[in-house]
Amino acid sequence: MHRSRIASTRPYPMFCSQLATIALLSVLSARTFALDPKLAADKQTKVEAAIARFMAANQIPGVSVAIVENNAFEWAAGFGMADLENYVPATSQTLYRLASISKPITATATMLLWQQHKIDLDAPVQEYCRAFPKKDDTITTRQVLGHLGGIRHYKSNSQDDPETGNTRHFDDTIQSGLKFFADDPLVAKPGTVFHYSTQGFTLVGCALEGASGENYVDFVRKNILLPAEMTHTRTDDRFALIPYRTRFYQKNKSGEVKNADFLDSSYKVPGGGWLSSADDMAHFAVAMLNDRLLQRSTRDVMWTSLKTSDGKETGYALGWGTGKDLGVADVGHGGGQHGTSTFLLIVPDRQSAVVVLMNIESADASGLATELMKILLGIPAANSK
Q: Which of 45, 96, 203, 380 lies 20 to 30 Å from 143, alpha-carbon distance?
């Protein structure tokens, strides 16, 4: 469910050549920023070659990658450019829009409250988010976390849509975000249909605030980011001066790389408004694998696929996608937004994780993450699904 593929667009020849050269040179000169890197030399060579091929074939301006093996952060590096106009190289510390990888962060914070008996996932969500009006059917926080709550997604993918291309900045991210959809009818009876919804995670953020008695961002920072050593992760505030933040790119219909359309994501922070780096996201994966944020039993609940009311598995757990495409159970999430394509892939039984962050939208971050995970696990590409 979480590993959707995105079709590539036709490249613009001259700029493609420039980007391919940048990709090759950056692979040859890339610096790793993990302390005492332990990734085997042969694996690192294969990883860097795969990244170079992907960047050249898809005209990716910049990408940062991190590798976790044996439950430890082993290697990270940046390739290409974080800023094409000013020739600023991407590094493992470059900050990208996480887009929907924000959802696992929000889900982990919510599950911590559940572990602490501060939230009942099966109670009506309005018990914790009083600003959300009652509907004809009961909606629970568990359902919303698993996209079974019947909450709508965006109304369209058009930049003219006031949600998709939002230009307003909100300091009160949760309450302002709720106003976009709270009064709209449900798209399905809760529990019956998997309907992916970024808006739903604003509702989760509201429930988190009600259950914890704290501001959403403050609670996440104190209970998730700091314990996981995610020291540079922060909300995507367009007014703030944020060191290491990348520029954001897109391709036009001819495949030419351009600056991305404008977006202010302040209204949807819980579902798609965080910035982070490959380094920080590797720390997040390590914290999850080593049970530093949640007890193992809580993590198991969070990583178990939900089922619709008729018993069909959705392939999506509580804020995390689930799969077995590699022949072994994996969890993770992808993200796509103005100027970004991201993927976090974790294989718990093999104690491994891959982080891929790109500064261009509509790129197949999941495909690259899967290819890199195959290298880590020793799975021949030709024999993989």
A: 96
Q: What is the CA radius of gyration of the chain?
A: 20
Q: Hey, what amino acid is at 47?
A: V
42 Rama sector, left if φ>0, alpha if ψ -120 to 50, beta otherwise: alpha
| Contact of 270 with 205, CB cutoff 8 Å | yes
Q: Taking every pair of C-alpha atoms in the chain, what is the biggest distance, in angstroms?
A: 59
Domain contains 6: no
Report the number of distinct structural domains present in the chain: 1
pTM for this entry: 0.91
Between CA 48 and CA 285 the distance in angstroms is 21
Domain contains 12? no
**In the structure, what pLDDT confidence band is assigned to residue 162 with cuts at 50, 70 and 90?**
confident
Record the tokens describing residue 320, joined without a space: 């995390």
- DSSP string covering 27-52: HHH--B-SSS----HHHHHHHHHHHH
pLDDT tens, residue by residue, 79-132: 999 999 999 999 999 999 999 999 999 999 999 999 999 999 999 999 999 999
> Within 10 Å of residue 275's Cβ, how many Cβ atoms?
25
DSSP state of 233: -
Residue 87's identity, in one-letter code, is Y
